[in-house]
Amino acid sequence: MDRRDFIKLTAITGTSATLAGCGNPEHQLIRFVPDEDIVPGIAEWKPSVCPLCRAGCGVTVRVMDADVDTVRNGQAGVVAMSVAKKLEGQPAHPISQGGLCPRGQASIQVTYHPDRITHPLKRSGARGAGEFKEVTWDEAVAELVGQLDTLAAAGDQTSLTYLSRPRCSRRLALAAAFLEGFGAPAPIGFEPFSEDVLRRANAISFGHEQLPTPDIARSRFVIAFGADFLGTWNSPVAQNAAYGRMRQGQPQVRGKLVQVESRMSLTGANADEWVPVKPGTEGVLALGLAHVILANKLRPADAAGRAGAAIDGWAGGLADYTPAEVETITGVAAMRVERLARELIDFHPSVAIIGGAPLAHTNSLFHALAVNALNGLLGSVGEPGGIFFTPQAGPQPSALSPQPFDKLSAKVLLLDDVNPVFGAPKAWKVRETLEKVPFIASFGSFIDDTSVLADLILPDHSFLESWVDSTPESGSIEAVTTVAGPVMKPLYHTRATPDVLIELAGKLKAPVALPWKTAEEVAKSQPPGAARSSALREPQGTPSSSRGERLAPRKYSEPTFDGDAATYPFHFLPYASQAFADGSTAHLPWLQEMPDPLTSAMWSSWVELNPLTAERLKIAQGDLVDITSPYGVVRAPAVIFPGLAPDVVAMPVGQGHEHFTRYATGRGVNPIGILAPATDEETGALAWAATRVKIARAGDADGSLIMFAGEMREHPHGHETR
Amino acid sequence: MSAVYAMYPDGDAAQRAVDGLRAAGFADRDITVISAQPMEGHEFSEMNKATWLWHIASAGGFLGLCGSTWFVQMTELAWPLQTGNMPIVAWWPNLIIIFEMTMLGAILATVVTLLVTAGLVRRMPALYDPEVSDGKILVGVANPAEASLPDLERALRAGGAAQLRRS
Amino acid sequence: MAHRWGMAVDLDRCTGCGACVAACHAENNIPTVGPDQAGRGRAMHWLRVERYWEGDFPDVRLKFRPVMCQQCDAAPCEPVCPTYASHHTDEGLNAQVYNRCIGTRYCANACPYNVRFFEFFNPQWPKPLHLQLNPDVSVREVGVMEKCTFCVQRITAAEIDAKAGKRELKDGEIQTACAQSCAARALVFGDLNDPDSDVSRLSRSPRGSKLLEDLGTLPKVTYLDRQTQV
Amino acid sequence: MSDAPANRLSDDLLRPLLQTSWRFYALVAFLGSIVLMGLGTWAYQMYNGFGVTGINNPIFWAVYVTNFVFWIGISHAGMVITAILRLVNAGWRRPVTRCAEAITVFALMIGALFPLIHLGRPWLFFWLIPYPSSRQIWPNFRSPLVWDFFAISTYLTGSVLFLGLPMIPDFALVRDRTTGWRRRIYGGLALGWTGTPKQWHRLESAMSIMAIAILPVAISVHTVVSFDFSMAPVPMWHSTIFGPYFVAGAIFSGIAGLLIVTAALRKFLHLEEYVHPVHIQNLGKLLLLMSLLWAYFLFVERLTVWYGNESAEIAVLRVTQKGSFAPLYWTMVVCNFVMPFSILSLKKLRTITGCVIASCGVLIGMWLERFLIVVPSLGHKYLPYTWGTYRPRPVEILITISTFAALVLLYTLFVKFVPIISIWELRAAEHPSPALLPAAAREQALGETQA
Fold first, then answer.
1. CATH of span B3-50+126-166
2. For chain D, how big is the Rg over CA atoms in Å?
3. Residue D434: its pLDDT value, please?
4. Given this model, what pLDDT does residue A488 score?
């Protein structure tokens, strides 16, 4: 090897060899014998499932050896064990298809988070003070068993409540079985941005109480009503992959994307045509499009079937929704309505998607039904390039309507990876309600706004340390079930929650018989009928009987907003942020420091204002702004945001945790807090876009807005004279 | 060793003394003149004017030029690393190095030559008198031959010296 | 035949989601600097997704553009480095030798794309976050310049593997972390010397152009324009 | 007779060496403490990492590089001016040459420090030096920073010698005038100088060779410094005019510095008799000339960019002249052109005070000029997404202040140990034979009449 090779080698190693750790204290520690025979420096790839959202992306985890600090019979030391290094999408997996979203990439930090709970904890201080002391698992389990036994003794089994994040995993089935055996009500699901309205609408229109799977990849024309399907809505990775193929993957065809919304989302930013509408009128535009199609006999009215029947005046050609009428209601020019309607037909196959803000109004079910009807009319249901319904296995957790929270009568409350104190409007008084619950146990891995109230914390393994499974509700045309074992040994004295439940069931005075012995069995046990594959060809006749559907056709009713327009002139639009979704990932440093795609903000929360609005109120970028609703006020720095209607102010959800590790605690503000407790008239789902606010400049920039970008335009001074 | 000299108030007197010494048959190389500043305009200050300093300086510069030219090439070829699509031996940049080294060569050559030829960096010579610092001008002869002493003294007095000194 | 690694970025596929940014952090041990330092403009993102607004409400559009080191063939950052810390490898990579770097930061000034970053402090990984560190990538100490390497550790690993197996590298066998995590497949990495590789094919596309092409830096990253529908 | 004046002259000029007042010690202590503080700050910066400064992405160079260019500029006072004056044999140079050359040497030493201070890993600075390292890696001669190394070291060597050689006869003088340890030290420094015509000739021809050699070096140094910027494809850096622009600016600030120092020495060392108002006024005239030249360069640079309308460059132009840097920019224009021009072009105002005021303005203005060359361009490169701005932080400010203190300190010590005016050169001018140095003679006369 001559010098030339050598320098090149140094170049390579320079960039790839590990630098000797700078004074790493590990060098002084005792080295224990490795747990398992691992080959140093050789990487293994093990499958797993990303747990952060319902999409259930299959991932492969790069596993390598590393020195891990441990304590062996009281002695601190390091042991070589194989730990996860990097997550990648599983190329073969029908959901992730080899890709991953930023949250998925960062999910590895859940396992390695410095503030993760390492032992079972028992509350030592006042409730909410966040003071806990470590207890052994035996003590912890005994404590919980005791609580449940007292309930049983008092014949008060119904006072056990299991509050969980909606998930598509067998873990929920286990919980359900346990509760049923114990005699308690079924688990309650809670998430800030619930999709119940859409599920209900699909049940009414198509007989599937679940989220749809738009076949974007094969579609030539996608019109999305508020659904940020490239960002946070439904199954983003699958939808990103499909979007890529729609744009450049079809020979000679480039699918067109039209986004209808009042605040430009990540998806809107990628749309060929961005159509701003008045909040709460999206469904009217959908029916306007349908009207044009019907009026011009481009498609037969009965093509929509049930979905059409659910709309008032459908058979009559939607006389109330002429383009002119639509223009007055939605603010979209009649000409444009005409054109879009024709394009929907010309660029067949076309599909309409609805999600997000349109389904967060008091009249949101109408919007969903309207879009469903449009899809029906386009004949896109179950057709390539249309919408599909992934064959389902097992029930979804019943949704939580606000009323139960007020009179949540639980005496024992089990929290499973759910944070309603953060995710529900203050007006719901969730915190106050929970504080009244005599005993709360949490299975969470972190102390967050809700689990800080817990009396007992039984920390779960991280998903990399335990058996995981997922049977997503949507995202793939075929039914998908993913089951994977642990990719690494647990770092701490944590326990898989399923194992804890099983142990619990056995230890009760009146033991609950469960069909499973271990978490592994739970994960591996397949729900009946999951094998059923390939989506249905046409809408099914029978609505799901879970709820009594009123099949009376719906018509547009003005959305009602909380706060009168005079005092509160602005629509308030919280949205799921790309980094934190509903806020459940705000504790991951990578995501905190990832520039927001549209604003480039990091480590901040902010309020978005239309440039004209800002100019009128003398608010400059970074200035502090008070956003006041009838239910409270939050103060955040302003971001000038051209993609926003002048009468709307938008705020990302995710920051503003009172308790959520060193990275998120006390950082920014939580817009959900000031939301009105408005709900959709029919489903009772939270109408999180139905609040009005007033805004006022509260002070100069204080540096709390941290931006990565310098300028927001490529030619900042394009047309000014020199 | 011995020397005979006299101190003179100004250049003209010193000039007369020097002329006298010459008349008495002393060669320029034997005559020592010492003044506290250059005495331009007096003939005696033209003694030993001839010098190779300029040529030596140029030689030094040339040396620096060749040396650096070799140096930059040698080092660049020692480890030929591609940067920014430039040739391994890139002459434009190298010219800057070469220029600086040339100048350095010239400067150092000059200084060294000065120190050597001006007979600096050495012990004090015998023939010197601190009064020079007061502006007087010393004219004298080091190690005069016994025979020539009378002429020498006469010549120095002719210059107008009050008294002669010996060392 | 020597490889010539390059990338194609299809702006018509890119959704600006930021997965590549997170993936790059995960692969290359890029420290998170925290809010204070980020507020001082010291956030490190070897790969960033630039976004530019066009037009005004309601006719407003956004333009995304992922920008990483363009691995220029005539890289302005290379010659200005006094210690050869930044130089060109014969696979066309723009190598940055951390342990030769003395931190003049001249390369960062010379880089027209501003894709070079400086370690202002020794990076911190509160335990056990350090367990995630990629052992194939060096952790940079204070005072050193760093930048996107096209995941050189993955390239060398694959090349060594291929050499050991006495076989040619297949197209797509090597993927940079960003390209691998991109669900929309907007980033394509490969060998420009292989005319049939995806990246070569895309780089020849009529939609293709180079970033700041007129500076003559000969970047090896090709941007395929976003198309517009009528 | 030349006796009396000669002695008076040497007495006056040797006084500072022989008598020491408590003020001297006080001043040295004061300056010394500031310099120590500066060193402490540097240590703090090295220990904690470069993050304690205000630089960020994308502004990787700021105050330190500004100071570097500024001090190298100041260093042009000595060489260029005295070298030129020596070559044209302008008599009025004689009292000012040495203090000018001293400025050069000290400013150069300080300036050369900054490339080290600004390194991310200063403990590895020696990798810049061309030596056969263990792995035979030589520096990259394509890097302007290495050019800097060669240019500055040559210039430093040259100017030290240029300053040192003419000091030899004066050391001899001190040797003869003193006793004891002083006699021994200065005797050593005098290198056994006597003062034969031969020595005088050699010295003078050596000095003229040096003068000829040092001039191009001085010019090359600042040209190379300008290359640090103009070699990089950065808007408004990548400019062909930078070489001459920087050299002119350097001489400009150099003269200002020299003028201030001369005036100060004249006042504090009571050299009124040797430094005449005319000397300072002549410097003032030079300053005026350079001010005009600077304005010309600025105009040429700005007009070309403004008219050329290349978007990236226009962005920089805009931010400096209209944007956040505008206050600094217009201050610079006033300090560098408006003020010096209005003061120095009027004979009535061209008093010593006037000249000093103008010079102070110029120093401020030139520092700002360098700052405005470095920072706004880096903050506004081609991709607006990466634009940024910069504020200096205490560390940088302290270090900057301490370098000014360092210059004054070095100078004070220098004046303490070396006759600040070249005695023999003054003497040489004192009783010229009529045929010789008419220029010099006239200048002297002029000086007398005005004094």
1. 3.30.70
2. 23
3. 40
4. 93
What dotted CATH number matches D10-444?
Answer: 1.20.1630.10
pLDDT at A188 over 90: no
pLDDT for A17: 38
From chain B, pick out residues whose CB is under 8 angstroms from the CB of D205: 51, 53-54
Chain A residues touching B78 at Cβ < 8 A:
3
Q: What is the CATH number of the domain that holds C215?
A: 3.30.70.20
Which CATH number applies to A121-192+398-463+491-524: 3.40.50.740, 3.40.30.10, 3.30.413.10, 3.30.479.10?
3.40.50.740
* CATH number belonging to the domain at A570-707, selected among 2.40.40.20, 3.20.20.60, 3.40.50.300, 2.70.70.10: 2.40.40.20
Q: Tokens 């300086």 sit at which residue? A: B57
Top pLDDT among A223 and A684 is at A223
Among D354, D334, D336, D353, smallest CA distance to D344 is for D354
- The predicted pLDDT at position A718 comes to 75
CA D278 to chain B, closest CA, distance in angstroms equals 24
Q: What is the dihedral of CA A299, A302, A305, A308, to 10 degrees?
A: 80
For the entire predicted model, the pTM comes to 0.91
Task: For residues A116 and A102, give the distance between their C-alpha atoms in angstroms, rounded to a whole number.
Answer: 21
The Cβ of residue A73 has, within 10 Å, a number of other Cβ atoms equal to 4
pLDDT score of C202: 96
Number of neighbouring beta carbons within 10 Å of residue D269: 18
- Burial class of residue C1 (count of CB atoms within 10 Å of its CB; 0-12, 13-18, 19+): exposed
Q: How many CB atoms are located within 10 Å of the residue A324 CB?
A: 11
Dist. CA A559–CA A460, nearest whole Å: 42
Q: How far apart are CA D9 and CA A126, in angstroms?
A: 90
pLDDT digits (tens, 9 = 90+) for A220-229: 999 999 999 9
Helices (H), C62-206: 106-110, 152-164, 177-181, 198-203
> What residue type is A704 in one-letter code?
S
* pLDDT single digits (tens) D264-278: 988 888 888 888 888
What gap in Å lies between CA A43 and CA C93, rounded to an integer? 25
Q: Is C47:C69 a contact under the CB 8 Å cutoff?
A: no
Query: Which residue ranges does chain B devote to CATH 3.30.70?
Result: 3-50+126-166
What's the gap in Å between the CA of D212 and the closest CA on chain A?
A: 43
Rounded Cα distance between D151 and D111, Å, is: 13
d(CA A382, CA A535): 7
The amino acid occupying position B122 is R
> Has residue A487 got a pLDDT over 50?
yes
Structure-block tokens of residue A119: 């032992």
- Name chain D's partners: 3 or more CB pairs within 8 A: A, B, C
Got the DSSP string for D152-187?
A: HHHHHHHHHHHHHTTHHHHHHHHHHH--HHHHHHHH
Distance from C-alpha of A495 to C-alpha of A466, rounded to nearest angstrom: 9
Neighbours of D430 (CB within 10 A): 15
pLDDT band at D3 (very low <50, low <70, confident <90, very high): very low
Contact call for C180 and A88, based on CB within 8 A:
yes
Q: Which chains touch B (3 or more CB pairs under 8 A)?
A: A, C, D
Answer for the pair A135, A120: CB distance below 8 angstroms, yes or no.
Answer: yes
Q: Tell me if residue C92 falls in helix, strand or coil.
A: coil
- What tokens were used for D60? 């990787």
Which two structure tokens, joined as six digits, stand for A125?
């201080």
Contact criterion met (CB below 8 Å) for A689 and A608: no
Window 75-94 of B: residues touching A by CB (8 A cutoff) are 78-81
Q: Going by DSSP bridges, is the β-strand pair C221-224/C208-210 parallel, antiparallel, or unpaired? A: antiparallel
Token pair of A195, please?
């999709």
Tell me how crowded residue A392 is: count the other CB atoms within 10 A of its CB.
21
Q: Is A679 helix (H, G, I), strand (E, B) or coil?
A: strand
